[in-house]
Amino acid sequence: MRTPLALATVFLFFTPPTTRADGPEEDQAAFFESKVRPVLSDRCYSCHSQAAKKAKGGLTLDSRESILKGGDSGPALVPGKTATSLLLKAVRYDGLEMPPTGKLPADEIAILTRWVEAGAYWPATAARPVVPPEVGVLTPERLRHWAWQPVKATDPPAPAGAGAGHPIDRFVLTTLAAKGLKPAPPADRRTLVRRATLDLLGLPPTPEEVEAFVADDSPDAYPRLIDRLLTSPHYGERWGRHWLDVARFSDGHGSFLDPAPLPEAWRYRDWVVKALNDDLPYDAFVKQQIAGDLLRDAPEAAAATGFLAVGPTYQSDGGDPESVAKARAETLDDRVDTVTRGFLALTVSCARCHDHMFDPVPQAEYYALAAVFNNTRSADRVLAPRAEQKRAADHKKSLDAATAALKTAKDSDPARRKELEADVARLKAATPPALPRVHAVEDAGAADMHLAIRGDPRKPGPLVPRRFLTALAGPNPAAWTTGSGRQQLAEAIASPTNPLTARVMVNRVWQHHFGRPLVATPSNFGLLGEKPSHPELLDWLAARFVADGWSLKKLHRLVMLSDAYRRSSQFDAAGFRVDGDNRYLWRMSPRRLEVEAWRDSLLAVTGELDRTVGGPAVHDILSSPRRTLYAAVSRNGDKLPADEFLRLFDFPSARATVSERSSSTVPQQALFLLNSPFMAARGKALAARLTGEARTTDARIDRAYALLYGRPVTDDERAAAKAFLAAGNEAEAWPRYAQALLGSYEFMQSR
């Protein structure tokens, strides 16, 4: 007879085999160009490059091939092997000592280590556009790239044999017909309500919600479902988390050069959630995060500038001017990179040390934007009405005066001293609660910045006026001469004539509804990025987004009402042979839930979830009933209790803006599902709920499948469940059975 544990493994975690990725290629390319190449160029190429008169030790480091081949001592590195790579040994002064002039700063060693650990990405040589040096980067060829062109809202086509249909489907069906693909049939109603609820709320529908939707045959049942979900306060939690990936949100605790905690970071997170729940127009969403402190008509928007303030703020590892300047340069680079990749899908940070290798972004334009943030400083601000702030200030003034008077009384009249002591005690007792504060930014200057030759702040080049990017603003953009330039930058990015902002956000929304964006490189629309799979559809959606007042909720509704969204995910061999990765949307791609939605769903079906919206970060999320959104996470992903659990299930690093998450299947995940105290506790909680809500074994099994999967149990599943439950003690068998169901792939999947 099978043991209960052996039978339990039949139910447990199964996913199609994948390999752990180290991040999308666009992110690796940006990291290489902005971080790795500058270190190699500045520290190594004088002795180890093809331009050197004679490469020392026979080693050149200016191509991947030469690095892997190595020199007299062998290969310079082994991708992924940080302990055995000679390049890392040398810069760590571990047996070898390079460069001989002195050991590299710790942050540069960390950059090279991270690069090797992730596989030592190097861009393909053939992909580089050949541009004569004297021409520069603002060439007609580069400026003709599709992404810089104005949005063109063409009428949806009329595919042969189809009725008028939804505008999105008219674009999709036309492409499918051209590729010889047939669309999958519609998803059944149980699948559809589960898909929509998980997509918009990150939580599964209740059995009662599923049955109500299945029984409702009115033509507006599905639109009403979407409207109900969009009005839920949990919508902002779900979609706020998507944005926080882009915003590289964390509670601080970075590397030793960025170690400070950010105890009020949660207030920015809550601002994002509220902004999405309120359907704040996306152009205002952009402006407030860049320059909310400068908007007179929205004083509470200062909290939105946490977008900038909660990023890494590097400190020097010494008091010398050089290390201070380098730390400042790294902080500025983070701000430029996060803003331009997050809102514009442009890798402007790659122009920090030289003109952009691929896109029409001269190095001078990097410093035109960096100067904006060089004029900006972090500043914790009080979040309270002015009258409340004045009352608190007046009270403090009175208490300080009474305390000072008491100190000077000493040997004076005892009666007077007693009176003063009573005053101080009274004022202390009446002290109002501390006013809430938020990590924000404020202007700290209005100066332009010198270009740094080869990215070295010690080598200033010409002074560069602050202005927007030529590729987007046209020739000779107007200089920004007032304030830091943040307000002008915010207006330029959020302008309806900017060809990128609406396209980029529409693409991100599409990505999270379909599992794949229309532009497969969502934070790189440049020449190295992917071309849109449906370019006319992308532009039609972008134009509609702006025409609808930049409303994200209207965009969700538009996308989710399409047949493309409501399609089944069932496999079709003919379609798979033509389009295996579903680029052309012939079916809905099945997807695994992100760790937050999966953990929240576990707590929802066991009846343990605390659905309170907002509040301070929770440091030990595995022992808390709060949604995973509220877990405190560190920038490096290894400083707080939740970090290890979240990273195990592909939670991203908060060191830089993240365009899309990796998806891995590794043995440790299955072991967590089988052996962790967290999963064992969820099994016990679900078993207690089932036994409390149903009296018979059959009824409990039915309830389990309704709660977890939103569908009836099959005869084979019922028979397997009964055999398992009959094989052991009931008090032990039900929690194990419940844990097995919770660990199944079906529960982790949005189908």
TrEMBL record:
Protein name, per record: Planctomycete cytochrome C
Classification of source organism: Bacteria, Pseudomonadati, Planctomycetota, Planctomycetia, Gemmatales
DUF1553 domain ranges (all copies): 485-725
Coiled coil: none
InterPro entries, per database record: Cyt_c-like_dom_sf, Cyt_c_Planctomycete-type, DUF1549, DUF1553
Domain DUF1549: 167-377
Tree of life domain: Bacteria
Organism, scientific name: Urbifossiella limnaea
Record domain Cytochrome C Planctomycete-type: where: 44-102
Single annotated GO MF: heme binding
